[in-house]
Predict the structure.
Amino acid sequence: MNDKTLLVFPDGTSCPFFSQFEFILRDLDFKNYVTINIVFWHTNNFNEDTKKQVIDNLLNLRMMHPEIKTFVFQNTHETIQFQTYSVVSDVVKTLVEKHNFKISDFMLVSAGSPVKYNIESFKRAAKENNWTQIKIMFSNVYEKMFFIHNDLDNEFYKNLNSEIKDKEKVFLFLNGSSRYHRNVLVSEFFQSGLDKKSYMSAHNFNSMDSQYMSSIPGPFQNHFNFLLNNPGLLPIKLADVEVINDISWRIWSNEIEHYENSYVDLITETKFIRADVSKTIPWISHDTCMLDSYFVTEKTMKAFAGKMPFIIASIPLFLNALRELGYKTFHPYIDETYDTIEDHDLRLAAIIKEIYRLASFSKEQWRDWSEKVHPIAMHNYNHFKNYKPKILIYDPDPI
């Protein structure tokens, strides 16, 4: 085998190991690993035949390349997905029980952040789902991906939000695809007029999601009904931006005004509702399919790069995870008690309450507030800029 790293797809084709994790293994000097990677992006397409194909491919690779030490399953889509790991568990169990493989022959790499909670969350999910546990590697791969597209030492980023000044908008509020928490907040902004005080974008309210959401009892039912009854409001796109939300791996030059002329970045991260809750509500598919874990995506990284104070709508203790990674958050200048609230609707209500408190500030209050939060935003920018590869490994069977 010419390359030490190889990406093997279930159909047997191969290519160089996916770059997102090649750099992690290389930068951290994983010399004792020869990595073979199998990708499960669309696990709904997997059945017994495809699992057998994966097993057969691994058996053939072991026969052809006895020097292989570790088979690395790749799960780089933000964090561990339940269906994905179920496939991994079945494959490993078969190979261990029937083909003389060892548990230590396998590892899964995840884009979940290297924070301790993620290990505990995986162990809990493995027990609940009766998974065969293998070594799991959590890493700050998303941060590295941001730097592939950006140089935070260049003049563009150095000058961005480098001075404190009066601003025209209160919030920068970019939204990706339809999610429970995003739809509630978008609806709240429209109904209150906060959309006029914000740089705001949002995709269409997905028709199937909207029908489900508007039928679920709860304090925000009217928010979903409002979007259903006003279909012309969405999508909403910021001027001069190529795509609706432009949440990408960089801050573009035509976004400078959005960052320099707003006070607070309201970030709606990918996951908001705990998996054990969303299992009872089948329409929250994105929350249901993903392990409860922390992963810092480009949504939050753009706030670091843009030196923005932020409120983050995510699962509980997301801000605590950021602090574990070395970032600072903005309490007491932003009331961050929302981050400690387990119930998703109560957490949303607390976020909305803080949004209104900040939106009521006078120019004098904003000036004083900005002076206090700017050093924290600069710390996050500098900490982010000085990225170093990090990993956290859970080994269920340490030698």
